[in-house]
Amino acid sequence: MSQELFKKSQEINLAASREDEIDVNLFFKHAAPIIRHYNRWKDIDRFYFIPLKLNMVYLCAGLTLPVAYPPYFIGTIVRNSFEHPELFAVKCECGHSAYAYSYNGSPLSGRFDLSYACPHCGANSSDTKSGWHIRSKVLTATQEEDLVRGRHLQSLNPSFEPAPIRELLKFCCVDEDCDDCLM
Ligand SMILES: [Zn+2]
């Protein structure tokens, strides 16, 4: 697994295992505290490079068109939203910024669906925008930077393994009354 971690895939494997699904659901459910504590974990590579089997694929007439090709790392997704708020953030009802943690859409119509979490108040929201191509381009560039960094990291430490997502949750949700994080 480790050797494959920073290899860009041109293939989309839509069959996620039950474990992969649980990880993705935990990320979605706890996106707000994960985003809130980004500055505390962004320099911890075991957290930054936790991979997720996100579904970012648009299927049409036998074509699979992803927003970006895997691998998708938690750190990449969150960093990308912080660094490109004009494309990946909105104003929350509480007045602060909410950041995208999940998205998909159609390159044909240009439609782009985003789910946001607000690190300030914890609210979740979603909306649909135009601009699939620009978002795909920006995310892919962020991802390329992280793949380069990841490969470098792995060359220095060949046995590098990312942490299980529950460790990140424990790190981020420690003060909150949360069953997932106490397990
Ligand atoms: Zn808010």
Polypeptide structure, described:
The chain is an alpha+beta fold and 183 residues long. It has one domain (2-7, 15-182). 42% of the residues lie in helices and 21% in strands. The protein contains nine helices and eight strands. Helix 5 (74-83) packs across helix 7. The radius of gyration is 16 Å and the shape is globular. The two termini are 25 Å apart. The model has no long low-confidence stretch (mean pLDDT 91). The structure holds zinc ion. Zinc ion (ZN) binds at residues 92, 94, 96, 98, 118, 120-121, 123.
How many whole angstroms does the radius of gyration measure?
16 Å
Number of domains: 1
N-to-C SSE series?
HHHHEEEEHHEEEEHHH
Task: Label the structural class.
Answer: alpha+beta
Total strand count, please? 8
How much β-strand is present in the residues? 15-25%
Please give the count of helices: 9
- Cα shape: globular
Helix content: 40-55%
